[in-house]
Amino acid sequence: MQQNVLVPYPHRILSMLKHTNTECTFRVACDNEPDYGQFFMLSLPKVGEAPISASGKGPGYVEFTIRNVGLLTQAIFELEPGNSIFLRGPYGNSFPVKEFENKDLLIICGGTGMAPVMTMINHFYDHPEVCKSVNIISGFKNAKAVLFREEIRKFKERFNMIATLDSGEEDGFEGGMVTAHINKIPFDTFDDYRIVIVGPPVMMHFAAQECVKCGAEESKIWVSFERKMCCGVGKCGHCKINDTYVCLDGPVFNYEYAKDRLMD
User: Fold this and answer.
1) What's the pTM value of the predicted model, to 2 decimals?
2) Which of 6, 19, 184, 209 could pair covalently with 23 via S-S, beta carbons 3.0-4.6 A apart?
């Protein structure tokens, strides 16, 4: 019998990795493998439900990097390995990873915007022959807000990666917002390229425009939107922006489409 897409099912928490005072990655037992950039609806009975992008995946598990910002996430943070969390999904479209093959790739992400691209970055890390080059700019507010520290150190060994802090200093991190470092990317050496930008809408817009100033074409830029979604399947309308349902048509969009329809 086919499962009802609106019914969540309990999944056991396998482990928890604390990144900061407010962010933690939960590894959850799950056989529903997401594509790169897809999201799940996470819930607890009588508490609430929210969309969370998968930040990791592997045989029999999916990972979610969650920020403690409300009633649901506060309740999730009170759980321990062995407890259950309710999931349904995955939902939405994904990054066109096959299209990125044999090209130079630039990934720009801000804060928790690094989570939705982590499965894709790890894919390219495990398969370095897939892209001509992988370039990453990842920005955080300050040293206390840095996520995925071990992964960043690992990625720097294989990729052209710039990690930044909006304020403060720390070894291995540049100062300033991600937009201040886009001109360091060697666009003039790229024969064919694609760009992925994930973060708050304002950050994505200005980062995309900075890429355009450096000679990038808007049609080669991809963005991913985080938006309040209540059903995940296009029924409730909470994620609708103009004529676009983010849960169905996204969360991944080509910037050429998104800039006028989703970023007004």
Assistant:
1) 0.95
2) 19
